[in-house]
Automatic annotation (TrEMBL):
SMART domains: GAF. Pfam families: GAF, PEP-utilisers_N, PEP-utilizers, PEP-utilizers_C. Keywords: Cytoplasm, Kinase, Magnesium, Metal-binding, Phosphotransferase system, Sugar transport, Transferase, Transport. InterPro entries: GAF, GAF-like_dom_sf, PEP-util_enz_mobile_dom, PEP-utilizing_PTS_enzyme, PEP_util_C, PEP_util_CS, Phosphohistidine_dom_sf, PTS_EI-like. The gene is ptsP. Its EC number is 2.7.3.9. This is phosphoenolpyruvate--protein phosphotransferase. Its cofactor is Mg(2+). It is found in: Cytoplasm. It is an enzyme of class 2 (transferase). The keyword ATP-binding does not apply. It catalyses: L-histidyl-[protein] + phosphoenolpyruvate = N(pros)-phospho-L-histidyl-[protein] + pyruvate. Residues 20-167 form the GAF domain. The keyword Transferase applies.
């Protein structure tokens, strides 16, 4: 009866092609009546605020009952499924003691009933029901298949459910214009959404006609030119650094792009009245089809290449214009699936008031840069269909990790009030700039800053940073169009060292890989976070490392405040090799009449193996910096960028506290200076424990320094130690956070976690 996999795949595909939420849900119920050969299928979704299961789509019951019929949890059979979270498979539903007849549905006497809960990431989304006239239970096979379908659809349905677009009364009826995400950078902002490259692919394009063939042709030609430029630039500038398979791919893509077949096909469609995107979609489909059925997998792969080229061309065709040609607004909330650092660089920093990503998490590099720039950011936002909101007013609340679309005037006013209260509070903290970060019982904590953009040198100095604890050197690489030369790097490093001199600046060597991709050097890996990252990558690309070291050492020649920091160390021999390379580079520079001193060299502890091997590594380095972002990720096996597991990513997991205790004790035993430079250092609750653990140097984004200084100046280190002892007794981070939240409230430091909406 059920060809499970293929039926399921085609169901999911059809839904993904549906035009909107209502159409998608309609597809689901119709398809399920066909698959199960029943007269009725109904989908109930849980309303966000009222905790009721609302009929969201039906095939077989009265269509006008959609959106009007709802059941409380535990009310009727549907409510019972919602409460117990178990499927119900009944031969004769009306005889069940939970059965309720709802007149609006005009329900005929259906006996056969099966309902299954829709659950996504442990949360009830709704209930899916099928009903038949016969008086017998559905088969086991049918039940198993229904459960499988429900689990497959739950993710998609959660997005619909949260968006509220399915309610006939409109979203405001159920408060679902609030979209939850993950806090990535604190702050509140109201502004207009600027939706960037919606990750459109050719499949998303719908047919459109145009009467201006010449204009459409010009659109296509411009996109080809831009892509040619992108490919040629990428291939030529990378030169010898490019692995041969990648450079071959560049050549193949260029050849395909310039092939007369592609252009001829597109021209033909445009002349027949298509717009350029539709013509491109059709032409790519036709050309790819020639290859798709080939036996030889190599030839088949060419079909994939054509689609790939088509998608890249499409993005050029639809991409937003850079500043000057485009948006001049000063209150933009940039929104997209993932917003790259390069995307941010297109705008003037003054224009960007907030960042909203439907993908990524707090520790995506976009989040880190947003923190550096003091821009509120929320990542991994669910249930937000961005393409419906481009240009609209919205609110972002970086403290609570949510954004609000289509806000009422009253809501905008309320959030503007909160925003100005927050800004006032931050302004008041400016008076602390020249005061030391010292606890009430006299323990001094050094507050350094994390940086990577020249743009945040000023906030760093303005907020009283006592130096740079982490200079992420990959950020300037990410903003470049090709690997920067030694002299280009030298210029940037010199400016940073100079801006902070004589305060120390720890410059980390290139840490790309994972989510930090260079636009001109794509690294494709199944498991990028376990792959070619940080020191592994630079040791394998020695010339890149040497160029960078030369630039840093030369920049430091007359300034003398440089410290080198090695990212992602996981093996002792990586440290040894790195030290040799530094020695060789120093000798080389000396032989060129550029004598430079050996700076202190430190390692990041962010991989569990480094933690376990720390006693063997410490004799090789001058200082240690804890990268709590990656250490949490690797210790807990929780991807720092995956919104699905964002709730599990918490620096205050008990395992992290135990790990931090060990690092502190190894460093104390060997007398090695220790600091912490992950985002944990900007989390007020975490800082209570870091002080208790004995950490005396923290490096954090410039905008967070005043708040953390205020916190440190308000606590006693002895109570922080007591608090740590109590926190170590707990087995989960929620309890630890509760303890620390209560302490912050007790100390009158609640403001640190943002103003509360009324
Ligand atoms: C870290 O992992 O904590 C860290 C500071 O490095 P990054 O976030 O740049 O990976
Ligand atoms: Mg890291």
């Amino acid at each position: 009866m059920f060809q499970s996999l293929s039926t399921l795949t085609s169901l999911v595909q059809e839904i993904s092609r549906a035009e909107n939420a209502i159409a998608a849900m309609h597809q689901i119920v119709i398809k399920l009546t066909e698959i199960f050969e029943v007269p009725v299928c109904s989908l109930y979704l849980k309303s966000a605020s009222q905790q009721r299961l609302v009929l969201a789509a039906t095939e077989g019951l009265a269509p006008d009952s959609v959106g009007r019929v709802s059941l409380a949890l535990n009310e009727g059979l549907v409510g019972k499924i919602g409460r117990t979270l178990h499927p119900l498979n009944l031969a004769d539903a009306p005889t069940h003691d939970k059965f309720v007849y709802i007149p609006e549905t005009h329900e005929a006497p259906y006996h056969q009933f099966m309902g299954v809960p829709l659950i996504h990431l442990r949360e009830l989304i709704g209930v899916l029901v099928i009903q038949g006239t016969v008086q017998e239970k559905f088969s086991r096979e049918a039940e198993a298949f229904m459960v499988t379908i429900a689990s497959q659809l739950a993710g998609t349905l959660q997005s619909i459910q949260r968006s509220g677009d399915w309610l006939p009364q409109g979203p405001t009826a159920f408060e679902h214009n609030r979209h939850a995400g993950v806090r990535a950078a604190p702050g509140i902002a109201c502004g207009h959404l600027e939706v960037l490259h919606l990750n459109l692919s050719l499949q998303d394009i719908t047919e459109e006609r145009s009467t201006d063939a010449e204009a459409e042709l010009a659109r296509f030609d411009t996109a080809v030119e831009r892509l040619e430029e992108e490919l040629t630039l990428g291939a030529s500038r990378l030169g010898d650094n490019l692995p041969s398979d990648v450079s071959n791919l560049f050549a193949v893509y260029l050849m395909m792009l310039q092939s007369p077949e592609l252009r001829d096909a597109v021209v033909r469609h445009i002349r027949l009245g298509s717009t350029a995107p539709w013509a491109l979609r059709e032409s790519s489909r036709e050309l790819a089809a020639h290859f798709d059925n080939a036996e030889d997998p190599y030839i088949r792969a060419r079909g994939e290449d054509i689609r790939n080229i088509g998608n890249r061309l499409l993005r050029h065709m639809l991409s937003k214009k850079p500043l000057g040609n485009g948006n001049e607004r000063r209150d933009l909330l940039l929104a997209g699936d993932l917003i790259s650092i390069a995307d941010l660089s297109v705008y003037h920093p003054e224009q960007i008031k907030g960042i909203i990503c439907t993908g990524g998490s707090a520790l995506s590099h976009t989040g880190i840069v947003a923190n550096a720039l003091g821009i509120p950011a929320v990542m991994g936002v669910t249930g937000l269909d961005l393409k419906n909101h481009d240009g609209q007013l919205a609110i972002i609340d970086g403290y609570r990790g949510e954004c609000i679309t289509t806000p009422s005037d009253a809501m905008i006013n309320e959030y503007r009030r909160l925003q100005s209260a927050d800004e006032q509070f931050i302004d008041q903290l400016a008076s602390l700039r020249d005061l030391p970060a010292e606890t009430l019982d006299g323990v001094r904590v050094q507050l350094l800053t994390n940086t990577g953009l020249l743009a945040d040198v000023t906030p760093g100095r303005k907020n009283g940073a006592e130096g740079v604890g982490l200079y992420r050197s990959e950020i300037p690489f990410m903003l470049h169009e090709s690997f920067p030369t030694e002299d280009e790097q030298y210029e940037v490093y010199r400016q940073v060292l100079d801006a902070y001199a004589p305060l120390p600046v720890s410059m980390r060597t290139l840490d790309i890989g994972g989510d930090k991709q260079l636009p001109y050097f794509e690294i494709r890996e199944e498991n990028p976070f376990l792959g070619w990252r940080g020191i592994r990558f630079t040791l394998d690309n020695t010339s890149l490392l040497v160029t960078q070291l030369r630039a840093m050492l030369r920049a430091n020649a007359e300034i003398g405040n440089l410290r080198l920091l090695i990212p992602m160390v996981s093996r002792v021999d990586e440290l040894q090799t790195f030290m040799h390379i530094v020695e060789d580079t120093l000798e080389e520079l000396a032989s060129e009449d550029c004598p430079v001193a050996r700076p202190p060299i430190g390692m990041m502890v962010e991989v569990p193996s480094a933690l376990l091997l720390l006693p063997r590594m410490l004799p090789l380095v001058d200082f240690v910096s804890i990268g709590s972002n990656d250490l949490t990720q690797y210790l807990l096996a929780v991807d720092r960028n995956n919104p699905k597991v964002a709730a599990l990513f918490d620096n205050l997991n008990p395992a992290m506290l135990v790990a931090l205790e060990q690092i502190v004790s190894h460093c104390e035993a060997s007398g090695t200076p220790l600091s912490l430079c992950g985002e944990m250092a900007a989390d007020p609750a975490a800082v209570l424990l870091l002080v208790g653990l004995g950490l005396r140097t923290l490096s954090l984004s410039a905008h967070s320094i005043p708040k953390i200084k205020w916190l440190i100046r308000s606590i006693e280190s002895s109570s922080a130690r007591n608090l740590l002892q109590r926190a170590l007794q707990f087995n989960n981070e929620a309890e630890i956070r509760e303890l620390l939240g209560a302490e912050l409230r007790r100390l009158g430091l609640k403001n640190l976690t943002g103003p509360e909406p009324g």
